[in-house]
Amino acid sequence: MSKFSLYLLAFTILLSSCSSGTSSSNAGPVSSDDEHPASPSQAPNEDIIPSADSVSLSAQVAKPYEVAGFVRLTDVVPDVILEMRYYTTYNFVGARIDGYEAPVALCTREAAVALQKASALLRKQGYRIKIFDAYRPQMAVDHFMRWVKDLSDTAMKPFFYPDIPKSQIMPQSYLSRHSGHTRGSTFDLTLVDESTGREVDMGGSFDFLGERSHYTYLYITDEQRKNRQLLRDAMTASGFRPLPHEWWHFTLRNEPYPDTYFAFPVL
Fold first, then answer.
1. Are 225 and 203 contacting, i.e. CB atoms less than 8 angstroms apart?
2. Helices 109-123 and 222-237 sit at what angle, rounded to 10 degrees?
3. What ranges make up the beta strands (E) of 29-185?
4. From the centroid of its chain, how far is CA 248?
5. What's the domain range around 150?
6. Average pLDDT of span 34-44
7. How far apart, in whole angstroms, are the C-alpha atoms of residue 89 and residue 116?
8. What is the DSSP string of 215-263?
9. How far apart are the C-alpha atoms of 168 and 171, rounded to whole Å?
10. I want to staple 243 with a disulfide (CB 3.0 to 4.6 A). Which of 41, 80, 249, 263 is the partner?
11. Gap between the Cα atoms of 204 and 206, Å rounded
């Protein structure tokens, strides 16, 4: 055999060996040309390909409020207007309140269904409901308690409690260590006139800590008294009971969790 033939035979054996090594590799196909993807027979192992049933863990796990039987209010009553004050800094504390992680209103499904009835009654008369607060986590109430003990922090006094010293907020029952809101079936709300897009004049603002907020406060106009009555009539007719010293506050009469105070955040 000639030298050339020997070289050719050796080269052939070497090439065959290299080809055999490549075909037995566990590596998936790599294509340098996106227009010519690997054929199905060259696909990577199935255990590294997301299946149609694969979803993120967050999508598989129910949100805390859903586990408790709560809903987002706007999913049941889409025509309510939200102005979630404790998500903002415009409140008597002057800061976003602990536990309010999104500007949404959560509540029990039963409370939402009852509020839907109130909304329907009011829409017939040309009004929409505006929500200031709904479910309030216990961590928010705890935030209020820390704030009320700090007598040096009176930044929002001119707006929310000009007529009483901060030291009297607790003794006069404007705040407490537990709130009906934390049970999930209480709303703070007002009315908006659909013809003007403005809030109805109730003779006092939401969360004003003083006698003006009492439903029976004498020194308001007939029109303001009529507006308070309009709101109260719609809410009581829909299954809610009022709070005498806050014209805006209503709790579902047959609330599903009368003795349970929840702690999950608003999100």
1. yes
2. 130
3. 70-72, 81-82, 106-108, 127-133
4. 20
5. 63-252
6. 36
7. 29
8. TT-SSS-HHHHHHHHHHHHHHHHTTEEEETTEEEEEEETT-S-TT----
9. 5
10. 249
11. 7
Q: Are 257 and 129 in contact (CB under 8 A)?
A: no
Query: Does 223 participate in catalysis according to the annotation?
Result: no
Residue 13 has pLDDT above 90, yes or no: no
3-state secondary structure of 38: coil
The pTM (predicted TM-score) of the whole model is: 0.77
Active-site annotation holder among 83, 110, 246, 255: 246
| CA 77 to mean position of chain CA atoms | 14
Q: What is the pLDDT of residues 101-146, one digit of tens each?
A: 999 999 999 999 999 999 999 999 999 999 999 999 999 999 999 9
Query: Residue 230: inside a domain, yes or no?
Result: yes
**pLDDT tens across 139-189, in order?**
999 999 999 999 999 999 999 999 999 999 999 999 999 999 999 999 999
Higher pLDDT, 3 or 76: 76
Closest by CA position to 75, among listed 35, 45, 104: 104
Token digits of residue 93: 């504390």
| Domains in the chain, number | 1
CATH code (residue 120): 3.30.1380.10
